[in-house]
Amino acid sequence: MTEETLNRFGEVTAVVVGDVMLDSWLRGRTKRMAQEAPVPVVTVEQIEDQPGGAANTAVNLAALGARVHMVGVTGADPAGATLNATLGRLDIEGLVIVRSWRTSVKRRVLTDGQIVARYDEEDEAPLPEAAERELIEQITRLAADADVIIACDYGGGVCTPNVRRVLCDLSIDRSEGSRGAPILVVDAHDVAAWRDCRPTAVLPNYAEVRRLLGEVLGDRDDHDRVAFLSARSEDLIEATGAGLVVTTLDGEGTLLHRRGKEPHRTYATPAPDTMSIGAGDTFTAAFSLALAAGAEPERAADIGQAAASVVVRRQGTAACSHEDLLQALRPDTALPPERLAACLERDRAEGRRIVFTNGCFDVLHRGHVACLEEAARLGDVLVVAVNGDDGVARLKGPERPINRCEDRVAVLAALGCVDYITVFDEDSPTELLRLVRPDVYVKGGDYHPDLLPEAELVRELGGEVRILGYVPDRSTTAIVNRIRG
Question: Which residues are catalytic?
């Protein structure tokens, strides 16, 4: 179903309206500190210029296969020429050049992968009336064939009240005899300004939500933020006037809110801040395309998160291609506990029987494989919980594990019978069992079900305990001893 949605991306026409900028990355080495100030002296060896802001959203839409039109403003300056040329190579046109305007530029200086300075160029002057009229003419003409309009309003001056009013009208109605109105997705620093447009979706970050709701929350951990946002879902929908609200959690994923439903969470790939620049633009592009292609909002959010996970592994302001996204959406085997629980909820909702087992799996042998294959036959989804390296050392002694955790996980992931893998550091999988709530808990060997410390908890959770057949003369300890001998 997901692949069908992605294949429809090529049928979508998207119009991006908003504040464009040039992202410039200056990379080099530093060997000394400056004499005139306590700052490093960076010898710049490479300069990379890439479209940023609304222009980066347009680049990602094009990379994902959509037909894209860009409506924005640049100055008649070198930065504007670079930005226009870069977009032109991707067949993205539509920027209005204003001689009195200064193209927005963000320049970041990096050494050893760290940003040591950033300096910006911006134009705070109001948009000239002639430029505004030209933007409105372009928007009106392009919207006639648009499936989705994405407004990127970062306070840069393009989304004036008049431009916003036109976008509102276009998204609400079209002339008689034309096809339906395009969906409107708004990525804005101030989503409240778009409330009267009744947008299809808005994408505020956590700080913007706090301002929107007038909350002073102080420092909160991820769990508190999720709980707060979940409790205020209806308030967010009412305050924004949107059908969907996607709140981002500062690199920890998103929460999708829609009326009458529990919030849907996505989980981000952890990445340094220097690698996550522009990932929000990628999320916006993929999420909007998925909605326009007919995906359910929750699935569209998953698709947006998968696209963002691609670009946070790349330097600079990057784009996610159609093939990148297909690859990223192929099911992951190894998952952190929270993402595992979310995946299992979907499996359970579709009637699948969940089987759970755990162990060190230090040196995988025939006994392990036989046990796992038998466990898989007891249900539809097999979850394997693997002891972390510290846990193995506590259980087996300081000379174990032989293979580090990432290697043990990789070998297990290659087995066709294993659906999901997760790692736990505690001595007992008790908390994982509460999270997973398996239908069947499996152990291999000469255990008795009633003597397993986890057995009572599994039964309390509504599951059953099964002990599988023991393969004689097959053990990791015996193999290790034979190698050492």
Answer: 281
Full pLDDT tens readout for the chain, 485 residues:
577 899 999 999 999 999 999 999 999 999 999 999 999 999 999 999 999 999 999 999 999 999 999 999 999 999 999 999 999 999 998 899 999 999 999 999 999 888 999 999 988 889 999 999 999 999 999 998 999 999 999 999 999 999 999 999 987 654 333 456 899 999 999 999 999 999 999 999 999 998 998 875 555 555 688 888 999 999 999 999 999 999 998 778 899 999 999 999 998 877 777 778 889 999 999 999 999 999 999 999 999 999 998 998 888 888 999 988 987 887 667 788 888 998 898 888 888 999 999 999 988 888 888 889 999 999 999 999 999 999 999 988 888 888 888 888 888 988 888 989 999 999 899 999 999 999 999 987 766 776 788 999 999 999 999 988 655 555 555 665 666 66
C-alpha to C-alpha distance for 406 and 168, rounded to whole angstroms: 50
Cα(56)–Cα(278) distance, integer angstroms: 7
pTM (two decimals): 0.72
Q: 320 Cβ partners below 8 Å, 6+ apart? A: 60, 63, 64, 282, 285, 286, 307, 308, 310, 311, 328
181 alpha-carbon distance from chain centroid: 28
**Those residues with Cβ within 8 angstroms of residue 391's Cβ, 6 or more apart along the chain or in another chain:** 360, 424, 425, 426, 427
Nearest to 59 by CA among 305, 297, 278: 278
Taking CA 252 as the corner, what is the angle to CA 251 and CA 258, rounded to the nearest 5 degrees?
Answer: 110
